[in-house]
Write a structure and sequence with these properties.
CATH topology of the largest domain: Glutamine Phosphoribosylpyrophosphate, subunit 1, domain 1
Helix content: 25-40%
Number of domains: 3
Strand content: 15-25%
Number of strands: 25
Distance between the termini: 10 Å
CATH architecture of the largest domain: 4-Layer Sandwich
Shape: globular
Radius of gyration: 26 Å
Length: 611
């Protein structure tokens, strides 16, 4: 869940690393820090302030190599002592970490039994002290021969040995002061390397090197990338890169790839927040989501037709999107798909068999629970399809049928445009199954046009005014049929952005217990269109009779509504893609009118790479 960014080159490394961390802040913003080699020692800059403050506070270090980290706290409080990077006692090396060391308490006890002092509450410091012990053993061996400084080989060996005793999904990067050395190891959490080539055009030598948690963080510099697999170490020295397989301790060939060029500009372009900007970009991103090779869709459909069972999975918002895609496939293509929350995979795995299809939904493509499910399903020869937004993600690399969402970078922690892009994929898949590929693309193009006219000042002001009337700490959302998914995603968005308790129910549950929650003035959102108008009118009447405040998300007014938000595309068969947008906007205005920053909700990070 943390962000890692390292750099070796000729530019000022501090500036480059800070800019990289600013693009990774969605991964965690509890604190951030830098490790910079200065005169054979590691100097550290740490702060609990937001990363944007780095633009106004000078960091008085100059170097051609640096390593940075932006933290989402897992072990230890949010304070300066627990902030990364963690530095060795000798100040010869520093370490940053993304993941959880599951056996850190055992390792910590072992260190204390050897009288090793620990100053932080983190699992990361345990790794640092273990590396120190390994390096001290090497020094003792050297003393029997002759005094010699530690080499890059020594650091590589010590780093690899310590990593092998760690349990859990952990990605680490180490910087060594006197060697201008970066070492990185990936296991579970993402790690990607980018370079600008030197005159020889040899990818294993370079002018500049970037090592980071995602491609977008350095995409403005280069699109020449190397993706690390689990249990691989990368060794980055001045003008030289090598990859080591930690299972064999052998150097292996590096596979450099050219990615599509992207630039993540940290500009709100006049919008108050990235969330509002990214919501309004959806008119264009849903059409980009259909830039899929029809043959790739046909290959997936062939596998689905041969499968005994089809499953769809995700975590958090991605699971709710998966449930909605399952509904779309049932309704349009008459295909039954079993939605499985990734964190509850264990009870479903025994029923899965070779040839089944598992469709995984993820914004980052690095969600730990979902990856864990995929890895176990592959052991049973289940075929994997994935829909992700991040190029080079591990989920894509594990997939038999990988698809990209093409939503572009999302800075806001909440998924907005990536969610509608995933729904666009689901709609296109369902329509392709029934031989309506071209018709589906036409409907999505028309939906894009409709959305371009939906984000008017008047419509936005209407939702902002509505948000002012929503008081209290509870909101309930009721929907049925194609609105079940929209209500669940809407409730999650409201909780994430505004910290108001929002809960979604199938409308039919109202009379079976939910109605006991309705008091005078309780806000209740009812999703309604022509197909379910009669049914939802009866539901709304029952809520109204108990004093509830009815907010209709609807195609047309209804006398039962106290307030109404218009659905974006009432007459479009692809409108299921856009049903989630009204609640995105309501969540945004509920947050801002409470003085909250919806881009950075408390306790959350966008990419959940720990279990």
């Amino acid at each position: 869940m943390c962000g890692v960014f390292g750099y070796i080159g000729k530019d000022n490394a501090v500036t480059t690393v800070v800019q990289g961390l600013q693009r990774l802040e969605y991964r965690g913003y509890d604190s951030w820090g830098l490790a910079i080699p200065i005169e054979n020692n590691i100097e550290v800059y740490k702060t609990l302030d937001p990363l944007y403050t780095a633009d106004t506070v000078p960091i008085d270090f100059k170097s051609t190599i640096a390593l940075g980290h932006t933290r989402w706290a897992t072990h230890g409080a949010v304070n300066m002592t627990n902030c990364h990077p963690h530095v060795s006692t000798s100040k010869q090396f520093a370490l940053v970490h993304n993941g959880i060391v599951e056996n850190y308490q055992t390792l910590k006890a072992q260190l204390k039994s050897q009288n090793v002092s620990l100053i932080s509450d983190t699992d990361t410091e345990v790794i640092v002290r273990l590396i120190e012990l390994e390096l001290s053993k090497m020094k003792q061996i050297d003393e029997f021969c002759e005094e010699s400084p530690l080499t890059a080989d020594d650091y590589q060996e010590a780093f690899g040995r310590v990593f092998k005793v760690l349990k859990g999904r952990n990605t680490l990067v180490l910087i060594c002061a006197n060697l201008n050395l970066l070492l990185g190891i990936r296991n579970g959490s993402p790690l990607i390397v980018g370079i600008t080539s030197d005159a020889s055009n040899n990818h294993d030598s370079y002018k500049e090197l970037f090592i980071a948690s995602d491609y977008y963080s350095f995409a403005k510099h280069t699109n020449t990338c190397l993706l690390l697999d689990n249990w691989q170490m990368i060794r980055c020295e001045q003008n030289n890169v090598s990859i080591i397989d930690l299972k064999t301790n052998q150097t292996i060939p590096s596979n450099w790839q050219e990615f599509e060029r992207h630039t993540l500009e940290l500009s709100r372009e006049g919008f108050s927040h990235f969330m509002l900007k990214e919501i309004q970009e959806q008119w264009s991103t849903i059409t980009r989501a259909t830039a899929i090779d029809p043959l790739a869709l046909e290959n997936l459909i062939h596998a689905m037709n041969q499968a005994k069972n089809i499953y769809i999975t995700g975590a958090g918002a991605a699971f709710f999107i998966g449930e909605q895609i399952a509904s779309i496939l049932r309704e349009i293509a008459n295909i039954f798909v079993i939605p499985v929350p990734a964190y509850e995979a264990k009870s479903y795995l025994p029923t899965m068999q070779a040839g089944d299809v598992l469709i995984a939904i993820s914004q980052s493509g690095e969600t730990a629970d979902t990856l864990n499910f995929i890895e176990q399903a592959k052991q049973k020869d289940v075929l994997i399809a994935s829909v992700v937004n991040m190029p080079g993600a591990m989920m894509s690399r594990l997939s038999d049928f990988p698809f990209l969402s093409y939503a572009g970078p999302e800075v806001c922690v909440l998924s907005t445009k990536s969610s509608t892009s995933q729904l666009a994929f689901g709609y296109l898949l369902a329509q392709t199954i029934v031989d309506q590929y071209e018709s589906a693309k036409y409907n999505i193009d028309r939906l894009s046009h409709q959305l371009s006219h939906y984000f008017t000042d008047d419509n936005l002001q209407n939702i902002a005014d509505l948000a002012k009337t929503v008081t209290g700490e509870h909101i309930y959302l009721l929907g049925n049929q194609q609105f079940i998914g929209a209500s669940k995603i809407g409730a999650l968005n409201i909780k994430e952005a505004s910290y108001v308790h929002a809960e979604a129910f199938a409308a039919g549950e109202l009379k079976h217990g939910v109605i006991a929650l309705i008091e005078k003035g309780t806000p209740v959102i009812c999703f309604m269109n022509k197909r379910n108008e009669t049914y939802m009118t009866a539901i709304a009447s029952e809520v109204k009779a108990r004093g509830g405040m009815i907010i209709g998300i609807s195609e047309q007014p209804n006398e039962l509504f106290d307030h109404m938000i218009r659905l974006p595309s009432p007459d479009n068969p692809a409108n299921v893609i856009s049903h989630i947008i009204p609640c995105q906007l309501l969540a945004y205005y509920l947050a801002t009118q409470r003085g909250l920053n919806p881009d950075k909700p408390r306790n959350l990070a966008k990419s959940v790479t720990v279990i």
